[in-house]
Structures are given as C-alpha cells and as structure tokens.
Amino acid sequence: MLDERKLAVLRAVVEDFVSTNEPVGSKALAERHNLGVSPATVRNDMAVLEEQGYITQPHTSAGRVPTDKGYRLFVDRLSQIKPLSAAERRAIETFLAGAVDLDDVVTRTVRLLAQLTRQVAVVQYPSLIRSTVRHVELVPLAERRIMLVVITNTGRVEQRVVDLPDVVADDQVAHLRALLNACLDGCRLGRVAETVADLPERLPEGDRPMATTILSVLLETLVERHDEKIVFAGAANLAGDFSVGLREVLEALEEQVVLMRLLGEANDHSALTVRIGSENPYSGLHGTSIVAAGYGSGDNELARLGVLGPTRMDYPVTMGAVRAVARYVGQILAGS
Amino acid sequence: MLDERKLAVLRAVVEDFVSTNEPVGSKALAERHNLGVSPATVRNDMAVLEEQGYITQPHTSAGRVPTDKGYRLFVDRLSQIKPLSAAERRAIETFLAGAVDLDDVVTRTVRLLAQLTRQVAVVQYPSLIRSTVRHVELVPLAERRIMLVVITNTGRVEQRVVDLPDVVADDQVAHLRALLNACLDGCRLGRVAETVADLPERLPEGDRPMATTILSVLLETLVERHDEKIVFAGAANLAGDFSVGLREVLEALEEQVVLMRLLGEANDHSALTVRIGSENPYSGLHGTSIVAAGYGSGDNELARLGVLGPTRMDYPVTMGAVRAVARYVGQILAGS
DNA sequence: CTTGGCACTCGGGAACACTGAGTGCCAGAC
DNA sequence: GTCTGGCACTCAGTGTTCCCGAGTGCCAAG
What we know:
Two copies of one chain form a homodimer. Helix content of chain A is 45%, strand content 17%. With 336 residues, chain A is an alpha+beta fold. The longest helix of chain A is centred in the last third of the chain and has 20 residues, at 315-334.
C-alpha cells in the first residue's frame, strides 16, 4: 500500500513541519532530506499520502501538513523514542533527589517535566487505592474531637478532623489506634473497608459509637473521596502557539476530571500512551496531543504523569522525556 | 485643581472604558452619562485630565483611555466598593462550608474567587509562622525512622520522615512527644525555636541524640522552609484578553516568589490592597492589576488572597468580591 | 465659562495588483 | 512502469492606495 519511500516522505513531512511549523512543500523536502528523487516524484507520493488521509493541505497551493492519522503512523512506525542525554539524566536525578516529602516530589516532577519538554506537564498524585497503609494515627484535639491521620507507603498523608458523639478518654483512643494499626498495617487501601468491617464488634460496648464514627470517616477519606489529585505546570509554554485553542486548554487543565481522563486509565504496566489530536476524549483539545506514562514503585502502577502540547510536537523527544521522568519518579518513591 | 465635574468626567471615562474596552470619545460620553454639558466642554475637561496624566489617547484622533494614574484616582476617590448580592453571599457560604480540610478550603476558595470575578484568583496557604501549634505527633515507622507530624491551629498539617542516629524504644518516643506537646501547645510557630532550645537538657542522657535530630528537622520544617504555598485558578479567564502579555502573566503565576510579592506583604489588619499596572513590582505584569486582601481567623492576618486581571477591570465589583471572600474564609478557618 | 462650528488628523477597512511558493498534469526519458 | 523536467494555474500574503468617519483642538460668539 505505502512503499518504503512514501513512508520516508511522510516521516520527512512530519519532521519538517514539527521543526518549522509551516506547511512543507515538495521542493524544500526533496532538498533537505536527501531522498534521491526529484520534487516531482515527491509530489506524486504526497498526492497518494493525501488521498489516504495522512497529510493535507491547509489551502490549495500551500505545502502539506500531517493529519492526526499521519502523526499516528509516524509515532507507531516511523519514529524511535529518543533517549535523554547524559547531562539531562543527571539533571533529573539531582533535581528530584532533593525532594523532602511527597508534595515536594510531585511539585518538582511537574516542573522538571515542563521544563524538559517545554510543554505543559501534568502529574497525578500517587493513587490512594493502590497504596498501602503505613500507619494510622489518632490525635486527640479536644474532649470530643480527634484528628485522624493516615500515612501511606507512598508518603501521602491524609488527615481529617472527626467530631465524636461522646466524650472519650485517651486510653480508649489509644486502644483503638493500636487495634487499627494491627489490622491495617500494609493493607491495600482498596481493601480497608472489608478489613475493618468487623472491628467494632471486637471492642467493648462503650467504645463502639466512637469507633464507628471514626471508621466511617476513615472510609470516606480513603475510598469515597477518590480525589486523585492532579497538578500541572508550564502553562506559559502554551502561550504564543496559536494552533491550539488556548482558552479551551486552560479550562481543561483546571478541570480535575477532564485531566484524569486525559492521562488515561492506568493500563498495563506503565506503558507510554500517546493520544493525538482528535483521538482524545475531550472536544476542546483537538489540536493538542497527550503523551502519558504510568509510574510506580516496583511494578504496580501508582499513578500517571504526562505532557500536553500541540499536535505538532516533537514526539520522539517528548516520549523520551516522559518515560525517563516516570522511571526516576518511580525510583524516588520506592526509595523513601 | 480638579473640580467636581472633571472628576465626574474621569469616572465616566473609566467606567465606559471598562465596560466597552474601547477608547471613549467626548460625544459618546456626554450622551451616556447625563453630565448636563456639551461634548465641547467635555473635551476641554479631557484635555486638562490628559495634561495632568490621568488619561491618554492611544493615537491622535482616538478617544481617551485611563492611565494607571487615572485608575488610581478612580479607586481611591471616585468609586465605592460594591457589595455582593445576597444570592452571591449565600453561594459563597454554602460552597465554602462544604470543605472538609484545609486543602479543600483553599482549593474551593481559589475557584470560587476565580468564578466570581471572572479573573485569575490567587490564594496563599495560611502562613506557618503566624499559626500556632495545635499538636505534635511522632509516629514510629521503623526502628530508626519516625514520622514527625505537626498540626497547626489553621488545620495545616506538615509532616516529615526523620532518620534517627540510634535505635529508639517506643516509650522514649512517647516521652519526647509528651514533652513536646506540653511545651509547644498553642505556641506561635515563629517562637518554636526559642521554646525548644533547652529541651534536650531536660531529657535523660540517652535520649538526647534522638531529640536533637528530631528538633532540628522540626525547626527546618517550620522555620527555614518558609514555603508559603500558593495556588491559583482561572487562568482561562486571561485568554482572549490581548491587553495583557499572556505569556508573562502565566510565567509569573508559576513563580511562587513573584506571586508572593504580588500579593504583598501582610500589612495592617487585612486591608484591601490594589496594585495598578506599573505600580506592581514585576515588570512582566504591566497591563495587569492586583486586588488583594489579608484573611485570618480572628484578628491576626494568616495569609493573603487576591485577584489578578487586566488594568481595565471593574474595580468596585472585584474589590467587593475579594473582601467578601476573604472574610468568609477567615470565618471558616476560625470555626474549624 | 460654555457652546457650536470648523478644519484637521489618522487608524482601520476596502479594493486592487503583484509576487512567489506550491500544485497538478503531461509528455518524454530511463 | 516509474521517474523527471516543464508548464500553466492557484491562491495566501503583502504592500499600496484610497476613503471614511470618529474624534480632536481651536476659535469666536453667547
């Protein structure tokens, strides 16, 4: 269907368009990439590519521009992920290593990624459901008020103030705490509900109202409130590129829900996902592509991170950066 | 110097320009605001206002546009802060009341403010230094590793993992915890350093290495790391307004340091601060104004929040919104 | 001090022509 | 059959010119 040379032409079109941001014509193309054929031949190939929907012309008598389908083919078959330079790797490593807590890791990561790719970076906080409980703490604040703190293995800390139905003594609280930690240590957050289900029954009668109140808040915090927190950085990199609808993109970025869907569902083994232009699920984002990857400590994917930019981005480089950053973050999280 | 009518003309110019975004001419002005004088008279007044630097013309034979100085006079003497409608107040109240923790309060606030003003909202997290300690918790994670958690009266939770020099027993930790809480409960964070200075001496010899390690991390967390966290929302509201340098503004928004300076130093008693165009300290932000206010629980200002928009914003409305939101947030924080 | 009149200015839009990059197609060469 | 050079054609973008009208400044009269 498409012989070797036509593919080469497509690759050349994509590369040139990405670097110049101008429709690329047959002549310039034949010169810059030494294809060994004349412009006329290139024109013929281009005509075919256009017919098949891989490229298009913005208007008659202008050069060609890749379509989403064209980029897709390019990404799938015509390009290789470009690894980072040694210098870049070192920079990542030192920059991320300085982080002091989870917040810091995420903030640094998102900035790093934005700077590295010169695009908008998006990072999701490690998922609660996939983490495990490292510690549960109950801190009495007042007679009838305590603070519930849950610390996960990824360093995430969730806390919530709980108003109790009755006055409780410190040792009652201490007892419950001990019990909770015994039950839950190392427990996947998704399984907390079942694990604590029978816990009130194992307490003395008097402690049960307190326990059920606390447990319901605990469950609410961990399970129901699946606010997979997301942050972004580098919005300034969007400005000046008029090929994307700036307003729409900014709106999308501030909608957690949309952002979640863009990063994509956690799929198999933190593969690199690329969504090109109209492939992505939000109509305001045609004209933009998303390159995302999962990251995690060890082999379970905790969450995702990625980059959002115009469809005419440099995919090989971007994919390399995203993959590298995802790996490093995974390492950092595993090591803390 | 400027008689009553000239001020009225200036006010009219500002109001018209804000609502139409087009230079306003003498004729239109004389008609729309019934000033009771002819266009010619208005022209004379305008000439004076221009000479004094309150208004300017973008080019000969165009209408007049307020200068920063003109807006300044308008804000200071010609306008009244416009209170919110009852409906808006209710909306704020219910929206903020639903917040479950500090993060949530801040997130909701910043969104609310962005939506209310249709501009970029900026909210600073309650300052650490001005808060007081509500509780300190030491959570053993491993033999030689504990987690330090500090909870402030504003609901802010700071945590940090500490690697200890020696193996410690649980009761040693418990003892230190008790001591810390006894010392620090209600202590202003700015004074923590002096308060705990002599603490190691009051411990048995064997506990001191552990204590000093923990204390140094504590101080580092609270004092040295003065990362007054800041968030913003509503960047999409900037798009489509070409009078501001979009790129510069977005860059500024992502620089915590710049943002801090924009909100202004916490000054006396949470007054409303307005910085107009070139008045503000960052050169990329000419063309934009900042309306900010302090907020706090009770009468000590905890932090600041505000709004950033084009100089040609509706100051009375914006100021009303900022003030109202600041008050409500203060109430919410005080009540939790 | 205010007002109507008047000449002047100049940004912005419409009409127009020109240029040049790029195309499609065809006939001839390999 | 595939490639190539040649050629006529298209059309976005640019520059030029022209004109209109909103808006101004100034002046003399009320």
